[in-house]
């Protein structure tokens, strides 16, 4: 890329889609916990939102969680309206990875 504007060209949008985490999810995926500093106001991401907002919005995590659920994998989704509980991160790490 020569500039941030290049990120919105068809070439780089296609590359971003191909490189997205959801493309690589499988039964081998590790447990995942994602937390977001935005409200989960399903599905309120404006069509013209910059990529940085899209990938840091709980809707992104929600889409990933749907794929994880379909694979029967553990996925914890937290956001401003449903934050981590006391000790939850430690329990997740210990329960998932020992």
Provide the descriptors you would attach to this structure in a database record.
single chain; 98 residues; mainly alpha; globular
Query: How would you name the oligomeric state of the polypeptide chains in this document?
Result: single chain
What is the helix content? 25-40%
Q: What is the N-to-C order of secondary-structure elements (H for helix, E for strand)?
A: HEHHEH
Provide mean pLDDT, rounded.
87
What report would you give on this structure?
- With 98 residues, the chain is mainly alpha-helical.
- It has a domain of 67 residues.
- The mean pLDDT is 87.
Question: What's a quick, concise take on this entry?
Answer:
The protein is 40% helix and 8% strand. A two-stranded parallel sheet has the order 1-2.
List the helices and strands and how they pair.
Layout: H1 10-19, E1 32-35, H2 51-55, H3 58-71, E2 75-78, H4 88-97
Parallel strand pairs: 1-2
């Amino acid at each position: 890329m020569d500039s941030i504007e290049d990120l919105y060209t068809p070439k780089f949008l296609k590359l971003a889609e191909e490189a997205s985490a959801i493309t690589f999810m499988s039964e081998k995926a590790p447990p995942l916990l994602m937390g977001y500093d935005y409200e989960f106001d399903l599905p309120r991401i404006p069509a013209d939102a910059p990529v940085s907002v899209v990938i840091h919005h709980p809707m992104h995590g929600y889409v990933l969680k749907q794929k994880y659920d379909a694979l029967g994998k553990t996925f914890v989704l937290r956001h401003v309206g449903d934050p981590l509980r006391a000790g939850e991160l430690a329990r997740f790490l210990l329960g998932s990875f020992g």
